[in-house]
Amino acid sequence: MFTYIFLFCWYFISFQHVLSESSDSDCLNSFSSLVCKKLANIHFSRTSSLIFNNASFTALSNYSDNFGHLLKLAPAAVLKPGEAKDIVKLIHFVYNFNSKIKNRKTKIYLACRGNGHSTNDQDLLNKTGIILDMSELSSILHINTNKLWIDVEAGILWLKLLKKTLKLNPPLSPRSWTDLLTLSVGGTLSNVGVSGQAGRFGPQISNVLEMDVVTGRGRFITCSPKLNSKLFYAVLGGLGQFGIIVRARIPLRTAPLKARTYTAVYNNIQSFTSDQKMFLNDPKKLFDYVEGSINVSSNPFTFTIELVKYYNNSSTLPTDSYLASISHFKAGSLIGVDSTYFDFLNRLQATVDYLISIGTWNFPHPWLNLWLPASNITEFYNSAVSSSNATLINGPVLLYPIRTNLINSQTSLAFPSDPSNVIFLFAILRTASPEPTAISAAEVDNLRLKTAAIALGGKGLFNVAYTKTEWIQQYGSKYARLSKYKKMYDPLHILSPNQHIFN
Ligand SMILES: Cc1cc2nc3c(=O)[nH]c(=O)nc-3n(C[C@H](O)[C@H](O)[C@H](O)COP(=O)(O)OP(=O)(O)OC[C@H]3O[C@@H](n4cnc5c(N)ncnc54)[C@H](O)[C@@H]3O)c2cc1C
């Protein structure tokens, strides 16, 4: 009887919500079992959830896979923190646990999951790992309409943030976006956050005023360009290596009402990219967004420029005849489409919903994202891309420029330099059939393109799985600085080991 009363009370005084507690046999091995037991003894906030392995593995199955659908790794446990303090407690526990052990094989690792849109194993961990699922830390904390900024918890999706700021009077909006809005603020700030607006406003990592970060030592630190600036810049583009972003302050501007999207087709890479650069560098800032893509369904490949002008009053829009007079696109190929500002920013959602409905959203995505210096873009295209097998590509191919002088070189982002201060993003967003041969054929093709890009001064971004040696090459002179920061902020190499940079 007393045992029952004790157990009953224990359940209710326990602060954490344990979704699926494990016994020894439930855990993958004795080590993860030990981790699970120790985690269960930490008093996380009432709004947090701990998820352990259970017999059917269902509770953890969402965390053993990501958008890439290329790898499956089951972690020991998942913490959904309800408050930033939970992250501090968790990292203290992991730090203390790891500092007491000598044998590296029994270390515990931590990886952060924003919205699981990584395509390799960046946000996955095996049985010695704990995943920090940031999805519950997704509140809007404060909006300052005088100083024009918004404070958000880092697990918030950009879509939710936008919906909130557009409801203000007057409607406000962040300046820099990604093509897809269902990515987390912490996830894109740890990578880059790039889209057609980056040419004008810089990527999202150039559009942050302040952050709260929990380092790999478990220290909660507020940082900005003036306060703890080393940590601030290390974390931006830092691939989760130096700390967990828990809050970000994002600058806002008055939101336009509408957007007109102009598309036009080109037959040749030189006129396509030189027009893109012209619009990018236009001192009159005619367009708010410059992107483009390679049409691999035509033979030979053609190119589509995508230009967007925000507006409130249509009389300020450039006319078709004016655009035709300054550009080199195929006569008659220019199309202009009007939409609300929100519908333009959220334009991919309908396609995503469709791909989900036909089941291919869950197919493997062996994506490749590269930066190329503008000076070598034609050579890269002619030597490596123009003869690519279109069937193997099976997805959109993006090609658009951004200006490097809008990226702070103190951030951790690796990007090439070019005398013109312009670099191109090249992305092959493949969907492969689930057969191993299809995936490996795509990966071989990615390696071919990556090798060609690196030989021409290019760099990888997002999901390019690098060995440590390749990371040293990727970061170049930045590697020494980043290694120093790793020692300062995550000396036991606990955070995001599957980026393979320092581990
Ligand atoms: C369909 C699709 C469209 C995309 N479109 C774009 C685009 O237009 N522009 C663009 O720039 N990118 C784009 N991406 C890439 C995307 O920015 C990255 O994959 C990003 O990591 C995804 O964010 P996420 O919230 O899903 O993060 P996750 O994939 O869950 O996490 C990725 C990594 O980020 C780190 N991380 C996540 N949250 C935090 C945090 N709070 N603190 C510290 N580190 C953290 C972790 O180390 C983790 O390893 C796209 C990806 C997909 C799948």
Automatic annotation (TrEMBL):
Protein's name according to its UniProt entry: cytokinin dehydrogenase
Residues covered by the FAD-binding PCMH-type domain: 71-255
Cofactor: FAD
Gene Ontology MF terms in the entry: cytokinin dehydrogenase activity; FAD binding
Organism placement in taxonomy: Eukaryota, Metazoa, Spiralia, Gnathifera, Rotifera
UniProt keyword Flavoprotein present: yes
SUPFAM superfamilies: FAD-binding/transporter-associated domain-like, FAD-linked oxidases, C-terminal domain
InterPro entries membership: Cytok_DH_C_sf, Cytokinin_DH_FAD/cytokin-bd, FAD-bd_PCMH, FAD-bd_PCMH-like_sf, FAD-bd_PCMH_sub1, FAD-bd_PCMH_sub2, FAD-linked_Oxase-like_C, FAD-linked_Oxidoreductases_BP
Annotated family: Belongs to the oxygen-dependent FAD-linked oxidoreductase family.
Cleavable signal peptide: 1-20
PROSITE patterns (alphabetical): FAD_PCMH
PANTHER family: CYTOKININ DEHYDROGENASE 6 (PTHR13878:SF53), GULONOLACTONE OXIDASE (PTHR13878)
Pfam family, one: Cytokin-bind
Keywords: FAD, Flavoprotein, Oxidoreductase, Signal
Gene Ontology biological-process entries: cytokinin metabolic process
Enzyme class: oxidoreductase
The organism's place on the tree of life at top rank: Eukaryota
